[in-house]
Amino acid sequence: MASTVTASTLTVTIKEDIDLNGQSYGSVNTLKIPSINEVSTRIMNVATGGTNVLAFAGATTKGTYHDTDVRYIRITNLDDTNYGVIDITGGGTTGVRLDPGASFSLIATSGNGVNTFIDGGGTTIANMTAIDIVANTAGIDVEVYVATI
Predict the structure, then answer these.
(1) pLDDT digit string, tens, across residues 101-114
(2) pLDDT at 117
(3) Which residues pair with 98 in a beta bridge?
(4) Cα separation of 106 and 65, whole Å?
(5) CA angle 118–109–102, rounded 5-degree value
(6) For residue 100, what are the β-bridge partners?
(7) In this structure, what are the phi and psi dihedrals at residue 137, rounded to the nearest 5 degrees?
(8) How far apart, in whole angstroms, are the C-alpha atoms of residue 116 and residue 130?
(9) Considering the entire predicted model, what is its pTM?
(10) Burial of 14 (0-12, 13-18, 19+ CB in 10 A)
(11) How many Å is the maximal CA-CA distance in the chain?
(12) Of 6, 26, 61, 79, which one's alpha carbon is 20 to 30 angstroms from that of 50?
């Protein structure tokens, strides 16, 4: 059976808009990522002890994304009180705080995807292998969105 899914272009738009003292300040940036043929989205609870959110390897397997196919990742903290820490593993671990209501995105438009993408040790770009999140004080809900080719 041949697939009936037709690849399409993902449009990512980032917009800031504010008026201060009668003057408008803002910006809109749009990026188009072609050839997307798979999108995964989920809302999940993250524990204070940590939760594996995404895994990457050289081939797609159950629960694991093919690292060279991943083009876009967005993680949004849906909690209104507690923050989480995103731990990105690859050549070491890099932690990023995710405040309540905030989003974190990774965009990999090169043909490598998230392969040879992260510098966890401070010296060499390495393959991203996992993203874990650790909730700070109490469990948090996060939305995870992944687009692949």
Answers:
(1) 999 999 988 888 88
(2) 72
(3) 84
(4) 14
(5) 65
(6) none
(7) -105, -40
(8) 13
(9) 0.90
(10) exposed
(11) 61
(12) 61
92 Rama class: left (phi>0) / alpha (psi -120 to 50) / beta: left
- Amino acid in position 37: N
What is the residue whose two structure tokens read 């909730």? 135
For the record, the structure tokens of 39 come out as: 């999108």
Both tokens of residue 141? 């809900």
Specify the residue for token string 């060279």. 68
Quote the radius of gyration of the chain (alpha carbons, Å). Answer: 17
Closest by CA position to 138, among listed 88, 101, 100: 100
pLDDT tier at 91 (50, 70, 90 boundaries)?
confident
Give the model's confidence band at 119: pLDDT under 50 very low, under 70 low, under 90 confident, else very high: low
Instruction: Specify the amino acid at residue 34.
Output: P
β-pairing, 84-89 vs 130-135, is: antiparallel
- Residues, the chain, total? 149
